[in-house]
Amino acid sequence: MKSKLILLFSLLTICTVAFSQEKKSDKISKHNMSVTDKGLIKVTIMYPYSEGKTFNMEYYETKHMPMVAGYLGANLVKYTIEKGVPNGIPNQPLPYMAIGAFYVKSLSEYQAAIAPNLDAIRADFANYTNVIPVLMVSEVVQ
Amino acid sequence: MKSKLILLFSLLTICTVAFSQEKKSDKISKHNMSVTDKGLIKVTIMYPYSEGKTFNMEYYETKHMPMVAGYLGANLVKYTIEKGVPNGIPNQPLPYMAIGAFYVKSLSEYQAAIAPNLDAIRADFANYTNVIPVLMVSEVVQ
Known about the structure:
Two copies of one chain form a homodimer. Chain A is an alpha+beta fold. The first copy, chain A, is 45% helix and 24% strand. Chain A has a single domain (2-139), classed as Alpha-Beta Plaits, CATH 3.30.70.100. Chain A is built from four helices and four strands. Chain A starts with a helix and ends with a strand. The interface between A and B is large, with 52 and 52 residues.
């Protein structure tokens, strides 16, 4: 009888401890998942559309973007890729075939990482497009 | 003695049930937090810069974007706002003063939600800018 009580009590204690451990680790993971992009610098590369211009999304997604991302190191928080689609408004051509964007913590670090690799980056354009992209830098407000 | 055993056993059962409930709800919330933007439709509104053009970011962020977001309902997954900043390349003007973007599940639902409110949206432009924005639709690849 006494040993049964001790056994039950031990089970209860283990259960309580395990339960509180689980809660603690959830709080940590929830905090990480709520990190925002606000304040980051976004470097956007836009590929304008016009007649005769082409864009190979598969190469861009599997080769070019990972190559450039590799130059950026820990300054890079994430990168995104969009494919232009018709906007449904008649007689309005596609403004851009594709847009890539790098979200970084520091613009000057971004520039310093890109500079020695600029020739390689530009040489790679020909592997997926025949248009010169437009570059834009912005700050994420929301 | 017997009642103490019953009490302890009840506590243990309650503990176990609560623990498994917590785990189940964590799985649900973790699934939500790991959802990607891939496949979403992104409607981007870009405000081009040129001499004499202005943009009131505070109004845009606190009034205009929430107003339009309100029209979109559950189709809207999230929206973002960026502020154009100089790109560091000499003699290259800012392409855009600001860019807003809505990430939605369905383009046709977006268009259907905007259509009855188009006049109100356009009338609101004058409250924060003197430029007509450029609209672009894209699909999120990554």
